[in-house]
Amino acid sequence: VSGTRVVSLGAVPVLPELEAVVEARGERAARAGVHLRAEGDGSIELAIRPRMVRVVGQNLAENALRYAGPGATFTLAIEREGDTIVLRGTDDGVGVEEDVLPRLFERFYRADRARASRGTGLGLAIVKHVATQAGGTVDARGGAGAGLEVRCVFPAP
Predict the structure, then answer these.
(1) pTM of the entire structure?
(2) How many CB atoms sit inside 10 A of residue 121's CB?
(3) Distance CA 24, CA 16 (A)
(4) Angle between helix 15-24 and helix 50-67 axes, rounded to 10 deg
(5) Does position 115 have pLDDT exceeding 50, yes or no?
(6) What whole-number distance in Å separates Cα of residue 74 and Cα of residue 132?
């Protein structure tokens, strides 16, 4: 991702890209016991290459499939909040300890539970990279037993 341009010349509708991410992971989600869905305002566009929107969605979804736990629901959403556009991935799964939330975006950082899986520790770092390259910010909210919400906040065009 680092060598490619993230920002595109035109704006791309976000919701269809998020829906494609969810659809592509249907079988994997069924095996993991995690329900995936995409929702939001279909008119919202971002000046990001469609592939980069998919990269963000894919990494957020993969994170939930690995760590949210069976029975969880993961939602990819796009919405307006004031003068910003928020692309968020939210699950109602097992969550992570609050004190590790700020570290989730560090390259190769993996919470204790994550160390037992085959993940690389790069997924959320990639999300942060794409968001910041497009002029946005990222943050994580949640806690142990409280699920996880990762928010990418972009200035509205």
Answers:
(1) 0.88
(2) 16
(3) 12
(4) 40
(5) no
(6) 23
